[in-house]
């Protein structure tokens, strides 16, 4: 049974207290009314019952309370009412203050008088010295609905460099027809939803973009996160698993207690939405015939570990406490030493989660809902998270950097297609040589949430927890600790056939992935900032230049931005291929003067920043169009314009993974102790997926993916073009040699 989420409890906590107080008082007064006038309700009815309550209340107080107690009760009631009024007023005022986003468009590095006053007011009405994770949820504004006219204008501007004059004229005609005819009707319904829904996008985005997809989520939806690039804390697989599992459980404990600080923007003043943290743990995607669901448990006291085709349930608590790292290592050692063979169908069972969703739903309903299969499946789906003790070795090898990193990325993205439970919110993969990584399901939250967890885990693992000289976790083993429990399965031949079919689909998909990772160390954001250019805009323009050199044409480009300035916000699309970026790329290709290239680069970067800010403040293009399309489907009114827009392929899909807790890492003295980021699979069959993480001042890691089956793409070729584009753009600024050091 699904439990009420922590966020919902936090949201209604104050209301529950108030309602209980009022209910008790109401019942007490009504009982006295009925004692003195039992015929009140039949005579006057419930509607006029309150006419009798005020005098009877004061009569009750006078009869049963002393004057001193009456004053005390009155003081408590007045104080309670005042407290409620103050809290409500502060939240309302703060919500109004946070609805203003003028600070986003202020000149970089300049604080105007208006902005200074606004910041002071936000600080005053925030009213908390040490806020908890969900403290600001009630104060966050709702995501606004842009006007149809503005969205049409921005859309037409975004596709102008991709269309010929005739094509653009036709699209203008479609857009104008939509704006004048069907658009206002759909907009009215969407506005209506925005008034009562917490967020008019998020529920539909989760359902229609993620949960209703019937294709494999492996590669197509799930994403991965990597370990340290240059640091290797221990070579012992069980020890690394012990420390990291313990660190993850500590993070979960802090999350359950809402003791983590919320994230802020703008000098730690503007809170970001924390709703996505709700389902980080104890969560699993459940397959369905038409749509999947997300199952979230309020608590789970175990994990499930996969090793050499066998599943083990491992309790995380003993004698009323969380297991220590050395004790978890002890449990992992027991699993590694286990010599039993997999049961029939057990080894490749998880391939069902890697293949198409409908066969998985059918197999689950037919063969895994009864007896020992149901018990074992419940253990997997209700686990805090899933762990794979992988029997391969993955690591960055300086002697073979390209192949080692590419193989590492593919292993995290899909593995053998049957050794990760892709439906779990997070899969922790620990390789034989102690390297590790994560594979995350995408429907429940976006990558920054998993990134936040991973940063804290990696900062805790080698420094706070540490290892002994032999590489073991610190501490002692526990001889009375019960061992892991082997999960039992009874998988019939019919189900094994379905597993084999799903595995063949998954293997074909995995083999088609062409992954490439570039640790770009020539320069980083420190040097880019000296050019007075936004690092993200610089990289996006480099991607545009690289793509044109790679394919000889421009393409529709997706960059994910966050909308967590609003309650339950997730992402919005920044369309990075603009008129200005194309002009800059043409100038580079046609070898214009350096001054002209520099002017166009600056202009394109400014346009990109403007679009990014609009997306973050709820004035994007694609989520609005998506929701209008959903409304049109609900109403049964097709729109040629919306159908064409929603079917346009994203040939270049990009995302920046921000480093959110830089204070956890000493990048100056220990640059090796930082995550190398993560990546995802290609979105289009003939396109590229590019994830990048800016690490410190001197390193940018690119994770590139494409499909081998496409004659148009080559991840390594595109990687070389990215590297050269970055260097060529930096050369335009002609920085002094001292700046390049």
TrEMBL record:
Organism of origin: Sinocyclocheilus grahami (Dianchi golden-line fish)
Protein name, UniProt field: carnitine O-palmitoyltransferase
Molecular functions per Gene Ontology: carnitine O-palmitoyltransferase activity
Catalytic activity: (R)-carnitine + hexadecanoyl-CoA = O-hexadecanoyl-(R)-carnitine + CoA
EC number: 2.3.1.21
A biological-process GO annotation: carnitine metabolic process
Sorted UniProt keywords: Acyltransferase, Fatty acid metabolism, Lipid metabolism, Membrane, Mitochondrion, Transferase, Transmembrane, Transmembrane helix, Transport
InterPro entries per the UniProt record, alphabetical: Carn_acyl_trans (IPR000542), CAT-like_dom_sf (IPR023213), Cho/carn_acyl_trans (IPR039551), Cho/carn_acyl_trans_2 (IPR042231)
A GO CC annotation given for this chain: mitochondrial outer membrane
Catalytic center residues: 442 (proton acceptor)
This protein's record includes keyword Transferase: yes
């Amino acid at each position: 049974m699904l439990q009420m989420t922590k966020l919902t409890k936090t949201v209604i906590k104050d209301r529950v207290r108030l309602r209980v107080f009022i209910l008790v008082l109401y019942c007490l007064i009504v009982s006295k009314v009925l004692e003195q006038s039992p015929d009140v309700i039949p005579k006057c009815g419930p509607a006029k019952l309150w006419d009798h309550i005020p005098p009877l209340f004061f009569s009750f107080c006078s009869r049963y309370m002393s004057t001193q107690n009456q004053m005390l009760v009155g003081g408590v009631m007045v104080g309670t009412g005042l407290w409620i009024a103050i809290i409500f007023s502060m939240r309302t005022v703060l919500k109004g203050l946070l609805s203003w986003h003028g600070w986003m468009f202020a000149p970089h590095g300049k604080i105007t008088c208006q902005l200074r006053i606004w910041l002071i007011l936000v600080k005053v009405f925030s009213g908390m010295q040490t806020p908890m994770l969900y403290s600001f949820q009630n104060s966050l504004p709702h995501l606004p609905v842009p006007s149809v006219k503005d969205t049409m204008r921005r859309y037409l501007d975004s596709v102008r460099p991709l269309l010929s004059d005739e094509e653009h004229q036709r699209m203008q005609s479609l857009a104008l027809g939509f704006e004048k005819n069907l658009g206002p009707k759909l907009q009215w319904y969407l506005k209506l939803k925005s008034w009562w829904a917490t967020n008019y996008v998020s529920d539909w985005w989760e359902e229609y973009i993620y949960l209703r997809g019937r294709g494999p989520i492996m590669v197509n939806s799930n994403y991965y996160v990597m370990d340290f690039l240059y640091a290797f804390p221990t070579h012992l697989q069980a020890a690394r698993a012990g420390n990291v599992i313990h660190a993850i459980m500590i993070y979960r404990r802090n999350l359950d207690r809402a003791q983590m600080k919320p994230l802020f923007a703008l000098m730690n003043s503007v809170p970001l939405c924390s709703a996505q943290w709700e389902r980080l743990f104890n969560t699993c995607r459940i397959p369905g015939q038409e749509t999947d669901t997300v199952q979230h448990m309020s608590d789970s006291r175990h994990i499930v570990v996969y090793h050499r085709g066998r599943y083990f349930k491992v309790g995380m608590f003993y004698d009323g406490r969380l297991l220590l790292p050395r004790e978890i290592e002890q449990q992992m050692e027991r699993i590694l030493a286990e010599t039993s063979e997999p049961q029939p169908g057990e080894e490749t069972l998880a391939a069902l989660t890697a293949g198409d969703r409908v066969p998985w739903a059918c197999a689950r309903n037919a063969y895994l809902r009864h007896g020992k299969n149901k018990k074992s499946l419940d253990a997997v789906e209700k686990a805090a998270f899933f762990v794979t003790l992988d029997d391969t070795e993955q690591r960055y090898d300086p002697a073979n950097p390209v192949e080692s990193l590419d193989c590492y990325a593919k292993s995290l993205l899909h593995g053998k297609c049957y050794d990760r439970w892709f439906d779990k919110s997070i899969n922790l993969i620990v390789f034989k040589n102690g390297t590790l990584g994560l594979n995350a399901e995408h429907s429940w939250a976006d990558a920054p949430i998993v990134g936040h967890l991973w940063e804290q885990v990696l900062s805790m693992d080698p420094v706070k927890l540490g290892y002994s000289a032999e590489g073991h976790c610190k501490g002692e083993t526990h001889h009375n600790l019960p061992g892991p429990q082997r999960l039992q399965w009874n998988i019939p031949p019919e189900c094994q056939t379905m597993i084999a079919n799903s595995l063949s689909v998954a293997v074909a998909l995995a083999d088609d992935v062409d992954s490439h990772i570039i640790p770009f160390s020539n320069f980083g954001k420190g040097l880019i900032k000296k050019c007075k250019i936004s690092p993200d805009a610089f990289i996006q323009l480099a991607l545009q230049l690289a793509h044109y050199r790679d394919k000889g044409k421009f393409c529709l480009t997706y960059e994910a931005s966050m909308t967590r300035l609003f309650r339950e916000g997730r992402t919005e699309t920044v369309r990075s291929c603009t008129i200005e970026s194309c002009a800059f790329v043409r100038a580079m290709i046609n070898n214009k003067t350096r001054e002209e290239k520099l002017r166009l680069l600056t202009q394109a970067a400014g346009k990109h920043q403007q679009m990014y800010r609009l997306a973050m403040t709820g004035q994007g293009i694609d989520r609005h169009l998506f929701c209008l399309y959903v409304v049109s489907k609900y109403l049964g009114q097709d729109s040629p314009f919306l159908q064409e827009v929603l079917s346009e392929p994203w040939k270049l899909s990009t995302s920046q993974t921000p480093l959110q807790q830089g204070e956890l890492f000493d990048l100056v003295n220990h640059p090796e102790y930082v995550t190398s980021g993560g990546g995802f699979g290609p979105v289009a069959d003939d396109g590229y997926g590019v994830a990048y993480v800016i690490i410190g001042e001197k390193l940018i890691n690119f994770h590139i993916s494409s499909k081998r089956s496409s004659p148009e793409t080559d991840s390594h070729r595109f990687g070389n073009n990215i590297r050269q584009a970055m260097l060529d753009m930096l050369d335009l600024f002609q920085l002094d040699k001292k700046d390049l050091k």
